Amino acid sequence: MAKVKPYAGETLVDVVGVTKRYGDLRAVDDVSMGIRPGEIFALLGPNGAGKTTLIGCVTGLITGFEGAVKIAGFDAVEDYQITRRLVGLVPQELNYDAFFTARQCLEFQAGYFGVKMSREEIDELLDQFSLLEKADANTRWLSGGMKRRLMICKALVHDPVLLFLDEPTAGVDVDLRDELWEYVEALRDRGTTIVLTTHYLEEAEKLADRVGIINRGRLLRVDAREALMEEFGHRHVDVRLGAPVASRVAEENRGLRLEVLGEDRLRLHTRSGEEVEGDPAVQRLMKGLVEAGEEILEVSGGRSSLEEIFRKVLNEDRAPEGAEGVP
Ligand SMILES: Nc1ncnc2c1ncn2[C@@H]1O[C@H](COP(=O)(O)OP(=O)(O)OP(=O)(O)O)[C@@H](O)[C@H]1O
Ligand SMILES: [Mg+2]
Prior knowledge:
Layout: E1 13-22, E2 25-35, E3 40-44, H1 51-59, E4 66-71, E5 74-75, H2 80-86, E6 87-90, H3 102-112, H4 119-128, H5 144-156, E7 162-166, H6 174-189, E8 193-197, H7 201-207, E9 210-215, E10 218-224, H8 225-232, E11 235-241, H9 246-252, E12 258-262, E13 265-269, H10 280-291, E14 296-303, H11 306-318, H12 320-325
Parallel strand pairs: 3-8, 3-9, 6-7, 7-8
Antiparallel strand pairs: 1-2, 1-4, 4-5, 9-10, 11-13, 11-14, 12-13
The chain binds adenosine-5'-triphosphate and magnesium ion.
Magnesium ion (MG) is lined by residues 51-52, 92, 166.
């Protein structure tokens, strides 16, 4: 499969100053951002942050918002007849057609978009999501995870250039989740642009090219995942000692950012972005331990997860001064 096309300096989606009010509540509050062609963009935020509402504004499901959304240059509200063909949406709420079979459901969806799909093509799509054996089952009798996978098939019948996946893995078991993400990556590699939301941050960390963090309707950060990890993340080195002397070692090395993880385990926090080998703090700790005759059983490196970074960004938003300084 062809590799991802490099970003050509254009945006596929432009969100400009979008605000969606429900009474006094700003579910989406002055959000501006761009989605680049060919990327996987993860929109992250706690419950009620405004993710589904923002996706609704972009996909044309929600109208009556302030600001503008353009998809490939077309207005998501005024040119809806055009943009709806560019976009596929897997909604967070399952909306299945209870009286049809899985195959019929896809046939109707194809018809809705004026797309001709042969039986083989429909079966192939079902097969990709491990649903072929349920092709003739009434959708009502599918399990929750199967229904969600059928929703994904439905969103793909018209081969959209832009696919929105709102919590696609909620209720999907671990193996199928992995398969689903593999499929999402394959779609991206074929050139489909993907916007997803998920509460499984380790999945976003693996998959996303860029990440947006939203809270209380406001977009707090948009950045390449790696840039975010470099800026907010830190690296650490964990050391397991041969004796329960972790507290003493921490006492003796007060100048270092040491955390006691257990009687015989220490974590040394190093600065963001620095390579762990060659880090002066790591060298100082190791030298001290060797000179003191401490037995070192294991040394392993790591860095903060996207989940920790996500919490950090949200915490800064909660702090009274921090909220002012957020770009
Ligand atoms: N139709 C509506 N009428 C009134 N309030 C709404 C409506 N839709 C959403 N809201 C409110 O807007 C806010 C954002 O909701 P939204 O569904 O966009 O959050 P979310 O980030 O998708 O959350 P979750 O992670 O739980 O799916 C919430 O406070 C919600 O109650
Ligand atoms: Mg939602």
